[in-house]
């Protein structure tokens, strides 16, 4: 019973045969602690903390106002909602030079969206040719914009002169050169008011062809 | 309504440097420098006024570190106000004797060993990987440097994050010939960092040391036993190339 314990004690008491001998040429790495070099602390200067004033909108160091020009070509559908008889749905085309003019700096910028261009509506009966002139308001950031653009329509519908008003909600992914528009338009026809809904998707030709 | 109107006006208004300084918006002022809206000089001066940096140098008497014959041990203490709109501030020191510049290096084991002529073992490269020597190996190879390092390491104190606010100190090592020339100048480079200037903008100053027999005496004549605000020191602006 005691034999294993005796063997264990004998093994640990014996000097290790393969332990490396200490090298007398190397100095002892743990000499007596060296004398500390103490120096008197200088008289300090009182210190203060300065917080940045709150509720200030940064001006420098944030994106500058975006000012971009574009040429939108959009295709889609127009649908009569109410008013004098016409096609229930018709083809819609827009060719609209546009601009996006930010009013201030920031990640999200309020901007004006002027529009001036040509708009077509064509169906079995419908023949709409309009000059579109509008100025919208919205917000834009580095990659896109969302705007509501009211525009005056001047032109002809079914070969009679007509005035109209279009209110469009435009989602513009101008970094990708794409946009989508949902618009309501009202036309003052001789036969009465015609309300139409237009759904248009398109590309920005300037983005597509100008790098 | 009034608040909305003020907000709308503020969106388009370009703040002056005085306004930015009053609001402690130094980060924005540095952005303004980057955009070319402000010259750098007034902005850096405004930041320096806010930080109000103070420094103190003490040269360890040569008798207390007799092993060092061509170098001097220096304790460098600095402090500054805490300015939340800045991301960092550093003060770099050099000593200029005539046209020759000496850098201050941290008085750690590697630089002390080099100053004392002790050679540290190189990292061992094993299968393309560098295996640095252990601290024990370094101390065995440079026992005098290790002892001196132990004697001065307590002079180091950790700085506040980004060196803003509070006080901290470093033990430094610099060349020190037995006879110092009359033309002995401390060069200070102050670098301020912000989100627009992550590498920082630097302003450079010369601080001539008064005449005296030794570096220790000349530094003591300038700094005495108290921290000295940079605003109170006879700093001379130095051009970047100088």
* N-end to C-end Cα span of chain A: 92 Å
Provide the helix percentage of chain B: 25-40%
Summarize the amount of helix of chain A as a percent range.
under 10%
The side-by-side strand order for the widest beta sheet of chain A comes to 2-3-4-5-6-7-8-9
Figure out the total of helices of chain B.
Answer: 8
Q: How many extended strands of chain B?
A: 13
How many DSSP-defined strands of chain A? 9
Side by side, the strands of the main sheet of chain B go 6-9-2-1-12
Which stretches of chain B are low in confidence, meaning pLDDT under 50 for 5 or more residues running?
Answer: none
What kind of assembly state do the chains in view correspond to?
heterodimer
Low-confidence stretches of chain A: 1-22
Give me the Rg of chain B, rounded. Answer: 22 Å
Reported for the largest beta sheet of chain A, the result is:
8 strands, antiparallel, barrel
Radius of gyration of chain A: 40 Å
Major β-sheet profile of chain B: 5 strands, antiparallel
Structural class of chain B: alpha+beta
Euclidean distance between termini CA atoms of chain B: 55 Å
Structural class of chain A: mainly beta
Describe the protein:
With 211 residues, chain A is mostly beta strands. In chain A, 8% of the residues lie in helices and 53% in strands. Chain A has helices spanning 3-13, 205-209, and strands at residues 49-50, 67-82, 89-102, 109-122, 127-140, 145-157, 160-173, 178-189, 192-204. The radius of gyration of chain A is 40 Å and the shape is elongated. The termini of chain A are far apart. The model of chain A is unreliable at 1-22 (pLDDT under 50). With 242 residues, chain B is an alpha+beta fold. Chain B contains eight helices and 13 strands. Chain B has helices at residues 2-12, 17-22, 26-34, 40-51, 109-116, 135-141, 143-152, 215-223; strands spanning 54-59, 71-79, 82-83, 88-97, 100-103, 105-106, 124-126, 129-131, 167-175, 184-193, 201-208, 228-229, 236-237. In chain B, the strands form three sheets. A five-stranded antiparallel beta sheet of chain B has the order 6-9-2-1-12. In chain B, helix 3 (26-34) runs antiparallel to helix 4, helix 5 (109-116) crosses helix 7 and helix 6 packs across helix 7 (143-152). The radius of gyration of chain B is 22 Å and the shape is globular.
